[in-house]
Amino acid sequence: MENRIKFFLLASYNLLKTLAITSLCIILCMNNAWAQQLYDPQISRKEIKEADIDTENFELGAFVGVMSIEDFGTNPIFGARLAYHVTELLFMEISAGQTTTDDEIVAEQFLGQAQILPSSDRDLFYYQFSAGFNVLPGEVFWRNNRAWNIAVYLQGGVGITEFAEDEYYTIHVGGGIRWLLTDWLALHSTLMDHIFDNDLFATEKTIHNLSWHTGLTFFF
After folding, report:
1. In the prediction, which pLDDT does 51 show?
2. Does 49 score more than 70 pLDDT?
3. Where is pLDDT greater, at 43 or 128?
4. pTM reported for the whole predicted model
5. Contacting residues for 220 by C-beta, under 8 A, at least 6 apart
6. Which domain holds residue 84?
7. Does residue 138 belong to any structural domain of this protein?
8. Which residue, 47, 94, 118, 161, is the most exposed by fewest CB within 10 angstroms?
9. Which residues of 18-28 are buried (b: 16+ CB within 10 A; e: fewer)?
């Protein structure tokens, strides 16, 4: 009789234990489902298209503009430029340009002479090396749905100017603005002062030749 009572109590204990464990598992599963529903909302994600920004460091292009040659008037200029961007702020550039003075130049009119330079010597050609620094990189916004990356840069260097059958060591300083129209195309507007010494009028003097030009460049 005593053994039967022990067996009944043991069986009852095991049954209660099993029921307790089962109930605990059910409660935990229900709590987990409730927690996921409360803290894991279904958010609709928008598809974002990232801009394909080229990482090329070389920039090649051409430009046109005007150049004021001291004592020889202001005339159209055209040329080309090749730049290498060392960092986001620093770049190196080589460029070349050419212009031709007027048939009736300012010096001839001022001195009353018939001709100072023959027509074959009135072409001015320069090639130069310079370093540039982007001082104000930023953005320009057009209305509410368009923006362009821009950079205001300072630039300076040395080069050679060929004019009047002679070559002159030239220093140039200036700056400009670069608009990045696309990820591979940029628009430049540059103002530069080309400084060298000449003695075309018997006395050597330092002359300043201002040029302004604009052009397109391609990144590759």
Report:
1. 45
2. no
3. 128
4. 0.69
5. 56, 58, 59, 60, 184
6. 58-219
7. yes
8. 47
9. eeeeeeeeeee
Torsion (CA) 78, 82, 87, 91 in degrees, nearest 10: -50
Quick: pLDDT tens for 160-171. Answer: 999 888 899 999
101-140: pLDDT as tens digits: 875 555 555 555 555 666 667 889 999 999 999 998 777 7
In a domain, 52, yes or no: no
**Helix residue ranges per DSSP H, the chain:** 2-39, 106-111
Amino acid in the structure at residue 36: Q
- Closest listed residue to residue 106, CA positions, set 119, 91, 116: 116
Whole-angstrom Cα distance, residue 188 to residue 149? 12
What CATH number is associated with residue 95?
2.40.160.20
